[in-house]
Amino acid sequence: MPKYRDHLPQLDPVPFLTDGGIETTLIFRNGLTLPDFAAFVLLEDSAGREALRRYYRTHASIAAAHRVGFVLESATWRASPDWAAKLGYSLAELDRLNRAAIDLLVNVRTAHETAESPIVISGCIGPRGDGYITGEQMSPDEAEKYHSVQIGTFADTAADLVTAITMTYPDEALGIARAAAAAGIPAVISFTVETDGRLPSGHSLNEAIAVLDGDDSAPVYYMINCAHPTHFEDAIDAGAAWAARIRGLRANASTLSHAELDEAETLDDGDPKDLAVRYLGLRERLPSLSVLGGCCGTDDRHVRAMSEAWLRS
To answer: Are 251 and 301 in contact (CB under 8 A)?
Structure first.
């Protein structure tokens, strides 16, 4: 049964952490193979499941040590129908693996949650397309139909919410929000931006949030991920109502563009302390900011630095 679905504790004015770049950590630091960046394939065997548990334990222990909350994000960014079919999985197998991903997080929560460090479980939704480029766009109705498969599975598990990560255009995000509303599970939408602070579709963050907030299925909050703070800090209007709707950040360690990262053969893990300082610098522009984590190139070092800097301030 979901523990926090009816009241997400990260909506309170308290600090929460989430993890770093799970795929880049597993590939570049742990030496694992993830076809098409699909971490859910690790759920197929005991060695893969233990690698995931080890990854989550490392991050959850930071939250417990610092007495802050934590959002466990499932390893299912690629676990939607098109990507599963490309990797040779049937819809039945996909359903099984999405459920297994949440079951694994339930076990991690049982082992690490404390009264001072509540742990929320999120079913991770990825884009139907690449994640760096918009490509062929769906209508909101098409996106709702496509993503309802995975979201329907999560709604039937102990997941407290779903989080759509690396959304590149508003219509897909809107379809996800509608699918979550129909399934009765809260949704969070995380947009990615290019170095000019705009979505790959060309929309500004303001425009994208306005599309979703103008609908009855508006998500509980928004995040920004897979971009360095230098890419979007100047695109945020301090004091704007839409900026207050952004509650979470999962920034990249690197200042490189999406195109440059796509061509990179080595991992740019940046400077954890500098990234933490940049998060602090966004506090005035993002007054609701409370969920801190990372994306490509980040790992437990970055998350620990974020937590330490945030709590010191």
So the answer is: no
* CA separation for the pair 202, 221 (Å, rounded): 21
CA atoms within 13 A on the CB side of 44: 12
**Mean pLDDT of all residues in the chain?**
96
Residue 132 pLDDT grade (very low, low, confident, very high; cuts 50, 70, 90): confident
pLDDT of residue 264 exceeding 80, the answer is no
Q: What's the predicted TM-score (pTM) here? A: 0.97
- Per-residue pLDDT of 159-179, as tens digits, reads 999 999 999 999 999 999 999
Question: How far is the CA of 35 from the CAs of 86, 96, 245, in angstroms?
Answer: 10, 19, 34
List domains and CATH numbers for the chain.
17-312 (3.20.20.330)
Neighbours of 264 (CB within 10 A): 13
Alpha helix (H) ranges present in the chain?
22-24, 46-66, 81-86, 91-112, 140-155, 170-183, 205-213, 229-232, 258-263, 272-281, 300-312
Dist CA 61 CA 9 (whole Å): 18
DSSP state of 230: H
266 CB-side CA count, 13 A:
3
Residue 197 · residue 231 · CB < 8 Å: yes
Task: Please give the Cα distance from 23 to 297 (Å, whole number).
Answer: 9
Ramachandran category for residue 59: left, alpha or beta (phi over 0 → left; psi -120 to 50 → alpha): alpha
Q: With b meaning 16 or more CB within 10 Å and e meaning fewer, what string describes 133-170?
A: ebeeebebeebbebbbbbbbbbbebbbbbbbbbbbbbb
Cβ count within 10 A of residue 194: 19
Looking at residue 235, the DSSP 8-state letter turns out to be G
